[in-house]
Amino acid sequence: MSTVAAAAATITQLRAEVSRLHAHLPAYGLVVWTAGNVSARVPGHDLMVIKPSGVAYDELTPENMVVCDLYGRVVEGEHAPSSDTEAQAYVYRELPQVGGVVHTHSPYAVAWAARGEAIPCVTTMCADEFGGPIPVGPFAVIGDDSIGRGIVDTLRGSRSPAVLMQNHGVFTVGPNAKSAVKAAVMCEDVARSVHLARQLGDPIPIEQSAVDSLYDRYQNVYGQR
């Protein structure tokens, strides 16, 4: 039995989930036209499900999601996968705890990325979700795993599930695709808030001990368990 056949039921479920999660990107103003994507690892298999390249958000369906191996090669699907596939495949290969990856060009976060500047941790939301500043990764060209290498190298030294790739945009990770989408939404909200704060003056940093406490509470106590 092939790997795809063995994972058929899970792939069907993930196709539907990944397709559905894409609706959040335009809804929260994180993408325009066909830019951006969501992907998910197929648990227990060296496979991922990702958006097809250049297909409009209102045309996405579970059936046109693309299944690739963790080197970006298409193993199931009639469409070419996202141009970010090799980069995201690299993330899945190198970070086994990651189950979902999202890429957006959300405007406030891109403005920080264009300056090559990390977003400082000056709001409790930033401490809650990102555990400190939202870091900047290196500039890298699209089309191979160079972006993936920059993502991995940057996030290995950070608690943040988001990285601003210089001159490019946002990549977020999570234990599943929904968590990565949430991080992308919150990254843009933090980027906007801190930008606005800077227009009014110098934002007040949060003490590291408070950042640690806020992060621990949000990650381990907040919400329903």
> What order do the helices and strands follow?
HHHEEEEHEHHEHEEHH
Radius of gyration: 17 Å
> How far is the N terminus from the C terminus?
38 Å
Q: How many helical stretches?
A: 9
Report the average pLDDT across residues: 97
Protein model, in words:
- The structure is a single chain.
- This protein is an alpha+beta fold and 225 residues long.
- The chain has helices at residues 3-6, 8-21, 24-27, 85-94, 107-115, 124-130, 146-155, 177-200, 208-220, and strands at 37-42, 47-50, 66-69, 74-76, 100-104, 136-137, 162-165, 169-174.
- The chain has an 8-stranded mixed beta sheet, sandwiched between helices.
- Helix 4 runs parallel beside helix 7, helix 6 runs antiparallel to helix 8 and helix 6 packs across helix 9.
- The longest helix has 24 residues, at 177-200.
- The mean pLDDT is 97.
Topology summary:
Elements: H1 3-6, H2 8-21, H3 24-27, E1 37-42, E2 47-50, E3 66-69, E4 74-76, H4 85-94, E5 100-104, H5 107-115, H6 124-130, E6 136-137, H7 146-155, E7 162-165, E8 169-174, H8 177-200, H9 208-220
Parallel strand pairs: 6-7
Antiparallel strand pairs: 1-2, 1-5, 2-3, 3-4, 5-8, 7-8
Helix pairs in contact: 4-7, 5-8, 6-8, 6-9
